[in-house]
Amino acid sequence: MNTEKKENHLLVAVVTTSGSWPKEGYENIPIHQKVKIVLKKAVDFIQIVSTDNWIAKVEGREINPENNFEENNLSGTISIDYGPREGGGGK
Amino acid sequence: MNPSLSKLIFERETNGFTTRLLELRSWIINEKSFPNLDLTFHSPERKPLRIKLICENYNDDPASIQLLNEDGTFLLKAPIGQGVINPGLHPVTNLPFICSPGSKEYHIHSSHLNDSWENYKGQPGYDLGGMLSQIYNAWKKTVDAQN
Q1: Interchain CB distance below 8 Å, A52 and B141
Q2: Are B4 and B31 in contact (CB under 8 A)?
Q3: By C-alpha distance, which of B53, B46, B139, B11 is closest to A86?
Q4: Residue B146 distance to chain A (closest CA, Å)
Q5: What is the pLDDT of residues A65-91, one digit of tens each?
Q6: B65 touches chain A (CB under 8 A)
Q7: Which ipTM did the prediction report?
Q8: B78 in A contact zone (CB under 8 Å)
């Protein structure tokens, strides 16, 4: 389990209903890494087929995967809640 | 559908419900035993919402999704907001319901009889975890109904 944060890094976990990345603990990620890069790693690890219309949230706040962690005002130790948007209705 | 296969799909789609997920989302599982998946969403800002998915013949058929009070009784007034939680009364059940192609109640609603589950089965966001995530994300944007 990774709990030691390096300088200019944060500790990140991605959590979904299909599993988590990493499975336990957190990964050291540079604060200038784009969030979408980390989400892609998680999706590949958990083997999620598609994340169309998914949202990433930290402590209830939606974050922008196109921005890096610092630009999303994220630091320290975080868990990203990743899953389908609220949807609604149908055809 | 063969009940054993249905159970296998049920278990495959729920075995990622880790302690980490449950703690992060403040979900408490009341029952996870095929064909029933019953859990409660908690949040400091609102009343808990209990959701019961009945997955008989899943996934040839979508899950029937019940909106419940914390004590397991039917919710008569759903929280108000946007997304899949429809506070209107369903013409068949006469209860608030989940208005999403991932629910059985959607497909037996007179407005959606021509929209087959086959259009959604196996699609991203319509598995059991995806449906619960949609409901949870919708619920987080609601306000409690006034009694």
Answers
A1: no
A2: no
A3: B139
A4: 22
A5: 999 999 999 999 999 999 999 876 544
A6: no
A7: 0.90
A8: no
Between the CA of residue B97 and those of B30, B88, B89, B115, what are the distances in Å?
Answer: 20, 7, 7, 17
**What's the pTM value of the predicted model, to 2 decimals?**
0.93
Domain ranges of chain B: 3-139
Partner residues linked to B50 by β-bridges? B40, B68
- Cβ–Cβ pairs < 8 A, chains A and B: 86
Burial class (CB in 10 A: 0-12, 13-18, 19+), A53: middle
Say yes or no for a CB contact (<8 Å) between B24 and A87. Answer: no
Angle at which helices B128-139 and B3-14 cross, to 10°: 50
Q: Taking the domain B3-139, which CATH number applies?
A: 3.10.110
B103 in Cβ contact with B64 (< 8 Å): yes
Contacts within 8 Å (CB) and 24+ apart, B34-41: B34/B6, B34/B7, B34/B10, B35/B6, B35/B7, B35/B10, B37/B10, B37/B63, B37/B128, B39/B132, B40/B70, B41/B136, B41/B139
CB B107 within 8 A of CB B49: no
Chain A CB within 8 Å of residue B87 CB: no
Residue A64 identity? N
Residue of chain B nearest A78, judged by CA positions: B24
